[in-house]
Amino acid sequence: MLRANPGTTGIGVDIAAPVLEFSASELAAAGLTDRVTFIEADVRSLEPRPEFADVELLTCFMMGHDFWPRAECVATLRRLREVFPNARRFLLGDTARTTEYADPDLPVFTLGFEVGHALMGVRLPTLADWHGVFEEGGWHCTTTHTIETPAASAIFELEPA
Fold this sequence. Notes:
With 161 residues, the protein is an alpha/beta fold. The protein has a single domain (42-160), classed as Vaccinia Virus protein VP39 (Rossmann fold, 3-Layer(aba) Sandwich). The protein has 4 helices and 6 strands. The strands form 2 sheets. It has a 4-stranded mixed sheet with strand order 3-4-6-5. The longest helix has 14 residues, at 17-30. This is Methyltransferase domain-containing protein. InterPro entries: SAM-dependent_MTases_sf.
């Protein structure tokens, strides 16, 4: 996104310092270190910061299921609206718990993903669960892009409600 949009800057937020270190080294290799700031924090409990006020686009990929259970997900979605007051769009992509496959047709990645999370005590939301929290969380889902691989995955295009 940075290469496609000269002059664009970004803020990367992650709870894991090693992920931020890896990301910083990748940006350095790409010559983009001057355009991204990294913050080590848990997005589920972010507090407002001056640098968040100008953010127009939020992206979150493959970690939205960590927002759950439902009440915590709604609270996190609301918090993101407060912490990023000028965000005009939020692209949220995640793999959800499957409900539409018969057991013999369940894709192997999906089975592994769901079993792995179940062993960690993480209940994955279904796509219907996701659609049930957006409005209450302060967001309106304008489009859902379903993704075949991995199964039951989607990118939700959200706008402030």
